[in-house]
Amino acid sequence: MTIKVGDRVPDGTLTEFFETEANGCSLGPNAFQVADLVKGKTIALFAVPGAFTPTCSAKHLPGYVEQAAALKAKGVDEIWCVSVNDAFVMGAWGREQHTEGKVRMLADGAAHWTRALGLELDLDARGMGIRSQRYSALLKDGVVTQLNVEAPGKFEVSDAGTMLSQL
User: Fold this and answer.
1) 20 to 30 A from 157, CA-CA: which of 23, 34, 58, 136?
2) What would the pLDDT profile of 152-162 be if each residue is shown by its tens digit?
3) Angle made by CA atoms 68, 72, 74, in degrees to the nearest 5
4) Residue 132 near residue 111 (C-beta atoms within 8 A)
């Protein structure tokens, strides 16, 4: 079953790579519970099929980096980029895309959370295994208030501009 507007996101574990030790987080991958991360916050979340892939690197992630201040000015507490990659890959991609202080690069390495959302994408035929569909969502205290799932191969409704217009 796919998550929909009005649903609470399932709990799960996402990991984030830290370049430096800070705020009780050690250098390297740190695991976080989704339920704790969303509590009392407004989150602009977008998910991509893969780090370093063409559309994701050229358009999707850069749009959210560029619009970070505008999204936060409209009440967004955090912006998350979620992908079925490991925290090391997400950390490297974040460094390359200059996301620090703007977008949290969260890894769902085994696609457990993505599957719980019902938004997995089978790219096995392309040698990529199970990935995430391309989508964006606005979460308020863990409840989905907007959900924009892309049609296969498209990038039309999950971009930062659409999210900004929905706030």
Assistant:
1) 34
2) 889 999 999 99
3) 125
4) yes
Strands 120-123 and 143-149: unpaired
What is the CATH number that goes with domain 13-166?
3.40.30.10
Give the start-to-end residue ranges of the domains of the chain.
13-166
- Percent of the chain residues topping a pLDDT of 70: 95
Is 56 annotated as catalytic?
Answer: yes
User: Annotated catalytic residue: which of 44, 56, 139, 147?
Assistant: 56
Rounded CA separation 23/121 (Å):
34
Question: What would the pLDDT profile of 51-62 be if each residue is shown by its tens digit?
Answer: 998 887 888 999
For residue 13 the two structure tokens come to 């574990």
Instruction: Report angle CA 85, 86, 89 to the nearest 5 degrees.
Output: 85
